[in-house]
Design brief:
14% strand; alpha/beta
């Protein structure tokens, strides 16, 4: 029972310490992308891949239903055939960067989710996205790893437990979605 209470308290503490003004800034950036018809790409490995796939459902479907305008959001974790083709024929480090290359445009958003902040394929994608003029956002844990200084903006969950980091990343993304949904609903359908 003690361990369960500790886990719940620790996740609650990590959530309570999130920087609300920075999260508001991310909501504003997502709304601007929506309003301007720009694309948003998400990517990550393992649990972070699942987080990316999950939140795209909310962003793409629910924002459209609320506002009557499509939101161009895509998870680069969902095309298994393409991921394995790039991994097999080139290198695993390129699976996200090469998916981005034909699509990403200047001022698009690329959200990189990596608990450690050190996944080589996530770092490659962040580098390419910045080269091509996209705005990069990193969700990381620990001390931010190599990703935090590489992206335009990072949100680091200061924790050394991957499961709690991933829990907080999902909450952050749901919070971004929820606030964006409220804003879009407040405007009425297009």
């Amino acid at each position: 029972m003690e361990q369960i209470q500790f886990y719940l308290r620790d996740v609650g503490r990590l959530i309570a310490e999130l920087p609300a003004p920075r999260i508001k800034g991310l909501v504003d950036r997502l709304l601007a992308a929506y309003d301007d018809g720009r694309q948003v790409f998400l990517l990550g490995n393992g649990g972070s891949a699942s987080t990316c796939s999950h939140i795209v459902n909310d962003f793409q479907k629910c924002i459209y239903l609320a506002g009557g305008k499509t939101f161009k959001v895509m998870s680069l974790t969902d095309n298994v055939a393409l991921i394995t083709a790039w991994a097999n024929d080139t290198a695993y480090e390129l699976i996200f960067a090469e998916q981005l290359r034909p699509w990403v445009q200047p001022d698009d958003l690329v959200i990189c989710v990596s608990g450690s902040g050190n996944s080589p394929n996530v770092l490659q994608a962040a580098r390419l996205a910045r080269e091509l003029g996209a705005y990069t956002i990193g969700l990381t844990g620990y001390q931010g790893g190599k990703l935090a200084p590489l992206v335009d903006e990072s949100l680091v969950v200061p924790c050394d437990n991957m499961q709690r980091i991933e829990d907080v990343h999902m909450i952050v993304l749901h919070l971004l979605f929820w606030r964006m949904l409220q804003e879009v609903e407040g405007r009425g359908r297009a």
